[in-house]
Amino acid sequence: xxxxxxxxxxxxxxxxxxxxxxxxxxxxxxxxxxxxxxxxxxxxxxxxxxxxxxxxxxxxxxxxxxxxxxxxxxxxxxxxxxxxxxxxxxxxxxxxxxxxxxxxxxxxxxxxxxxxxxxxxxxxxxxxxxxxxxxxxxxxxxxxxxxxxxxxxxxxxxxxxxxxxxxxxxxxxxxxxxxxxxxxxxxxxxxxxxxxxxxxxxxxxxxxxxxxxxxxxxxxxxxxxxxxxxxxxxxxxxxxxxxxxxxxxxxxxxxxxxxxxxxxxxxxxxxxxxxxxxxxxxxxxxxxxxxxxxxxxxxxxxxxxxxxxxxxxxxxxxx
Amino acid sequence: xxxxxxxxxxxxxxxxxxxxxxxxxxxxxxxxxxxxxxxxxxxxxxxxxxxxxxxxxxxxxxxxxxxxxxxxxxxxxxxxxxxxxxxxxxxxxxxxxxxxxxxxxxxxxxxxxxxxxxxxxxxxxxxxxxxxxxxxxxxxxxxxxxxxxxxxxxxxxxxxxxxxxxxxxxxxxxxxxxxxxxxxxxxxxxxxxxxxxxxxxxxxxxxxxxxxxxxxxxxxxxxxxxxxxxxxxxxxxxxxxxxxxxxxxxxxxxxxxxxxxxxxxxxxxxxxxxxxxxxxxxxxxxxxxxxxxxxxxxxxxxxxxxxxxxxx
Lengths: 319, 312
Hints:
The complex is a heterodimer of chains A (319) and B (312). Chain A is 68% helix and 0% strand. Chain A has helices at residues 2-28, 36-51, 66-88, 93-113, 115-118, 139-163, 165-175, 177-182, 187-213, 223-237, 242-263, 274-292. Chain A contains twelve helices and no strands. In chain A, helix 2 packs parallel to helix 4. The longest helix of chain B is centred in the N-terminal third of the chain and has 31 residues, at 24-54. Chain B is globular and about 60 Å long. Chain B starts with 23 loop residues before the first helix and ends in a 14-residue tail after the last helix. The chains are: A mainly alpha (319), B mainly alpha (312).
């Protein structure tokens, strides 16, 4: 039970980083990215290639320390996001969503077809687990510690960013793009920054995932798990609210894991249908949230404006 | 996501030779299959274009509606009905599902921002896909086992199913044309897609038109799904994978313009097929993506859209 809890929390932590990344793009800036899974996968593959021992089956491995892998994962995901952002961020949100489907599909095809790079559908094995053997027998617990430290740093940084003038401009773009442009802000520049930053976090989450499971293949990055569930986490928790995003990761991953407990009790002839049943459950849950509480569990609370020298008489409690 | 699904049903791809290395027959072969693929895209794109134009949101569940329609067809084929006959009850069932989803979910969200509807439709897409997996199983299925021998015209090879798809699409397009031009509902629909506010002021019953929009879109989606299933195989992700080319086609033709969507579908289908002369067919999706992005940057109202009108 204890080892299951540790396993559960590591995945919550990894999803937490993913959701915080998506929150920067959607929650802060209102950019609709349906290619979350693609950046997640790019990070996972980049770190795997950098840290695995040399192999004839894929590019590298370069057998470098894990932190180099993490850095490369963040850099590659950010670099790809930069190139994609340059060509797509002019689009309004629903068109951007359509474009990111294309990006996700192209990246998924590259992972499958470019065997020299990724070993195709057979995937990459022997991805080392960092900190292995520091405390004998407690590898997973130690890894949980690493994930939580990274999550805490990411949370602190994204929360700072949200409250900074930079975050304020992003919210302004989300609410009223023409007005922000009229105020002299370079809207495209800000959106590009938010898109790249969010994608870098998704790449980091991918690296954390790869080193946790030690084996990755294109199968692991299907849109159901790598994109859809992340979106449900953010919507359920409350887009725009970092605490909500983390709560969403915990609650939805809890529901997802709990549903496995339920489907394990189904008669055996239903075994092959367990996966789709669980996705169905999450899909219905999303609709219920949208219909009854579209703000999420913890609605967004922008920081109160700094009091001006002459505070206005009527305070607006809704902020 | 696409294990076991052929990336293209056209077994005569001559990949990597370039245009100079391709014979006239090969080009003609690609042209014919491009038309078949384009017909399927066109039928899907009409529904996307109409819902986008009339309900004002990008319906991400449209691809999975196609999947659902294809599997309804499979059920009736399983009863021993010919595929052409099965299409009718399958389309009715798909229409019922689409209208049901609208009444159950989207109707309650109409006052929200369109992007909330988009997120909701993303959820609907996953719900439909998992239902298909639960009801019909996760594996590849076919309407008819065995290999269909192609007709040979010189070096040219044509599968009889392609003719069925092309003729079927032509008939559906003519029917749609008559509906849009001759009936009051069709005219109201065009008016709403053209100018939503103006149409509302003239006293059009918008909720009724919304239902008709779903009905037309879903019936054509079902046909597209069945045709796709005839051409390749049935698989729970078959429709989702078509979402990008379909949206590209709808945007190419100008949102809310069914005739534009048809043209857009054919253009995307042909472009994807001819691209296999120079790139690996696995990356065909990239062609639709490239067309979409270039178009949105340089001419966001679509090639056939009016330069000043439309939403940007």
